[in-house]
Hints:
47% of the residues lie in helices and 16% in strands. The chain is of the alpha+beta class.
Amino acid sequence: LSQSIAKIILDQSALHAASAHPRLSKIEKPEDKYEKNQAIGSAAHQILIGRGKDIAIGKFDSWRKKDAQDFRDAAFKAGQVPILDGHYAEATKMVLAARAQLKAIGIGDAFVNGQGEVAAICQHGDLWLRILLDWITSDLKIIYDYKTGGVSFAPHTIALKMETDGWAIQAAMAERILDILDPKNA
Length: 186
């Protein structure tokens, strides 16, 4: 059980979760489609953490021309995230801004000392739990999770974003798994 599947169970139903689960679903994956905000988020995540989805940077202004479309489609087929170089530049600026903000609040070492993209897996009774942590410090005491989005993260909107996206479920799942794996730090 991952936090994303838990969110589907809570928001929709167990049947919806089963159809969304990669090991339980017989439903074919939808056709690959370029989503600007997702591509920028994936690239920013990869730049900041140093791990994540493979990124294929296309030196094009858009995906309208045949050679650009061929590049994009080949990247999807190879399991990569295609991104226009202008969008990649936006992702780079986002990471620089994030690092400056982290430094300004006194945690400039976030996403520096530790490990990125750590899969934490444990058994809880008969249930297996799994979460992918963006970053965990070497002492296993601090978890950082990098969030991006094509919406405002202004102080007056962040609480609604957190609730809508189920960040509490994600945090609870990470805490439960780490408490089982490292009870001394619970």
